[in-house]
Structures are given as C-alpha cells and as structure tokens.
C-alpha cells in the first residue's frame, strides 16, 4: 500500500571484494537504464559494508539524479548499544558506515543463532535509536502452516516487535518470509502472500491507526525471482521484496526491480 516499492537484496554470507565490486557496478549500470521509481537497498555481509558503501557512493556521484539510488543495509545488529558483546556490531557503528536499513529476525538467525522474538524486538529498538530502519522478518515454518497456524505465528512475531519499549511501529519495514519458501525455490502464491500481508496490515492498523499502517512497507521474501516478482508485487499489500538468491545475479535483481516500477 506504500506508493513506492522497496526492493532489498540480502546477500547473506556470500561475496568477496572482487565479486561485490562487479555486482555493485552491474546493478548501478542497470539502474541507469531503469529510472528512479523504486527504492533499492543491498545488504552485504558486515565486513563488506564499508567497501560496498564506498562503491555505492561513488556510483551515485557518477550517475547524478538520473537513477534510483541504492541504499546500504546490514544483515543484523546487536540488541545492546555497546559494551562486552564480542562479535556483535552496534547500531551506531552501522550508522557511521552509512547504513540505512538493517534486517532483524531473519529466519536463518532465528534458526541457527536461536534468536527469540524478544531479542529481535530489542534489535529493532536499538536500530531505531541509532536512526536506522529495521526490516523485521516474520514467517512460519511448513509445519506451522500445515497446522493452520501461519497467521497466528507471524502475528505473534510482529506483536513482540510492536510492543517492545522504544520501538516505533510506524517507522518499521516488515518482511513476511515464509520459512518454507526461503532458498527452496518454492514461493508462496500471490494469494497466500496477500492473505498474510493483509492480516499484518490489519494488525498494524490496530496498533498504529489506519493511516500510519498504510505507510509501513510490508515486503515479501521467499524465492522471489524474475519470473514471479510481477505477480507478487501486483498484490495490494505487497510493498516490495526481500530477495536472497536472485539478488546475487545482477540481471535477475534488475528484472525484479523493473517489476516494481
Ligand atoms: C532471504 O534470505 O531473505 C530470502 C528471501 O532468500 P531467497 O530469495 O533465496 O529465498
């Protein structure tokens, strides 16, 4: 329901100095042809944020205003502001590197790092306190969907973020990513995705009011690709995409962006 779509590429634990440079260059060149009607962001691994941020800034200077700018996103952030948290990265540090968005609660972190709804909500609060926009990921497993619990699961995940102290729900981006669709090549049908997005929008409206809820971007993620993006992005409550595998191939990523124009 937001007017401008948001397309975010999640590179996960992929890339190298050379591969990142080639990918950013190819995306920049493609966007020069595509125009500026979509907001685009890429989320490289944290060790490459400074490199990719520098490349994006240089590309923007060259291209001027004639194309979409590409924002920098991070894949995770600490739930604490600073201190004895070895290996963690604070939101203020990301901000210093020019990061604008940060993914929190990706299902891979819920699964492999055991992140709870409470930790994810604390991360969203930290991100906002530092001036970043959290992209809060929600999604049910296949077992939960088969048990008829998909809506209940994602609504509980969203509610934990909305109710957390310090979180401004109106300044969130939400990403619905059914776990069974991530990296599997199996996408939610546009109707399945729209059903969940509409329920999340209603939940946001109950918490924030209709008008604020309309302005919260709700992204779909889960095997979105050049072949299925147009249909998904045409749905009323799908405001963009969080793209994994297809974000690593510039032609595919650009095709998805073109579908969002
Ligand atoms: C993701 O990791 O957020 C994702 C949606 O991955 P993929 O597009 O590969 O399913």
UniProtKB/TrEMBL annotation:
UniProt GO cellular component terms: cytosol
Positions contributing to substrate binding: 10-12, 183, 223, 244-245
Pathway(s) annotated for this protein in UniProt: Carbohydrate biosynthesis; gluconeogenesis; Carbohydrate degradation; glycolysis; D-glyceraldehyde 3-phosphate from glycerone phosphate: step 1/1; Carbohydrate metabolism; erythritol degradation
Xref: InterPro entries: Aldolase_TIM, TIM_sf, TrioseP_Isoase_bac/euk, Triosephosphate_isomerase, Triosephosphate_isomerase_AS
Keywords annotated in UniProt: Cytoplasm, Gluconeogenesis, Glycolysis, Isomerase, Signal
Entry keyword annotation includes RNA-binding: no
Major location (coarse): cytoplasm
Active-site residues, Swiss-Prot/TrEMBL: 106 (electrophile), 177 (proton acceptor)
GO BP term, pick one: glycerol catabolic process
Catalytic reaction equation(s): D-glyceraldehyde 3-phosphate = dihydroxyacetone phosphate
Family per similarity comment: Belongs to the triosephosphate isomerase family.
General function of this protein: Involved in the gluconeogenesis. Catalyzes stereospecifically the conversion of dihydroxyacetone phosphate (DHAP) to D-glyceraldehyde-3-phosphate (G3P).
Xref: HAMAP family: TIM_B
Stated name of the protein: Triosephosphate isomerase
Organism encoding this protein: Corticibacter populi
Organism phylogeny: Bacteria, Pseudomonadati, Pseudomonadota, Betaproteobacteria, Burkholderiales
Gene designation: tpiA
